[in-house]
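In the previous chapter we treated chains in isolation. Here, by contrast, the input contains two separate entities that must be folded as one system, with a combined length of 523 residues.
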Amino acid sequence: MSPRRADRQRRGDDLAAQITPYALWRDRRQFLQASGAAAARLAGAAALSAVMASPSRAVGATKDALTPVRPLTARPSRWVSMEKQTRWEDATTYNNFYEFGTQKSDPARNAPGRLKMDPWRLVVDGLVARPQTFGVDDLLKLSPLEERVYRLRCVEGWSMVIPWIGYSLSALIQRVQPLGSAKYVAFTTLADSQQMPGLRSDVLDWPYHEGLRLDEANHALTLLCFGAYGQTLLAQNGGPVRLVVPWKYGFKSAKSLVRISFVENQPECSWNVSAPQEYGFYSNVNPNVPHRRWSQATERRIGEDSLFAPRRPTLMFNGYAEAVEALYAGMDLRRFY
Amino acid sequence: MLWAALPLCFLAWAIVSGQDLGTNPQEEILRGLGQVSLCMLLWVYALPLWARWMDPAVLAARRAMGLWTCGYAVIHFLAYLQFEHDRLLLSVWKDIGERPFVSVGLLGLGLLLALAVTSNRFSMQRLGARWKVLHRLVHLIVVLSLVHFFLHKMGKNDYREVWIYASAFAAVAVLKVWPRRPMAWR
């Protein structure tokens, strides 16, 4: 082997050797706690938080999970953001899943021990030639699983980069054969008061509804998602099956789906119903359409940058403009927000 | 009055020593400062009740408490300026048009500053009877703060905390007004 090639090989090996084994990286919290360092940090944060606001970080993202998590193998896909991925720890402890509470730390605290992800039924009905009910195993066999690293932009002005696992929703759509009269797809999240303490609050009308236009649902980017970070979805991330629509604000990516219906008229979407002037049906990420509570021109990438680092500019369609802008050609996006 | 400095000390220590402030520390800090400001404001607002029913001596701390409240509100504003606008004062202007809750907050802050800079003997002498009128604005400031909080929480339909603060304010306001008795502290 030439010296240069040996050099490259050595550098590559060094790089490969620097990659922390997944299990250790995932469990580093436990590792740190054992060494006592994290205990001191948590005490400090707890003290501060007691004086200020409630902390957003919940300890033990996978403790007491009712349905254990398993690894998922997926082939790589063309949809891979080259930006730094959000740490698993952050993506699984900072969530909006109001069915389990309105604090960011509530889903990680409440969902794993309550949400029963097995067995699970996803009903696909409405204006289709082949309505059917799927179990998760049926769905996993429907199409090869891919890993897609998508940006996720929350309407609250923060964002993450998450390696999801799933396949294009279009594979499922092809299987059920929508009729010509089907123009929209409606999604429904589980709403079980036995499992979900947040249902007691009237923050939203339950169950959580979302919807897409049929062409949006058929777009290659729209993901029917079963996993993240190389394993099945955690309860707080909307397991066992959820939607991910990366060019729209995060609330459009409905979690823990129990029903997908093909309909003729624009379906009701929970946030749109609760505040129609703020949350439009489309809710495409658009830095030019302001929001009454959060700036949509900039965002904060979770886990990145130091405390005083500047915010990042938000990209049109969350950076997926090239892929999706054709869907909205000729539409006034300030009117159809 | 030194206990009023505690939240600020915690925050400073946490930042300087690189403590884990959560997944979205900028959000935590901004919200936390807002909550501390609001708590202090309600506490100052309720002080005359405490004086009336418990210990008139606490009124001696009223000025210091008011100044601390204003101080925290200013730091809350500075945190907003830093974490939402990266210290660009000009983009605050855009917010005034686009985000009403910011306008309400800025108005409340402005009034609070007016009260803070006139919290001294010199101002009382210069303004005379108008000083009392000016400082009655505290009622408006509390209301504006609650509206600021409410309008912010409206985005997520999550009013539980707002109701807690609003109930506290309502209770204090009602008790302050009825029964009325002349206060003998000045």
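The domain at 56-328 of chain A is CATH 3.90.420.10 (Sulfite Oxidase; Chain A, domain 2). Residues 3-18 of chain A form the longest helix (16 residues). Compare these points with the single-chain example from earlier in the chapter.
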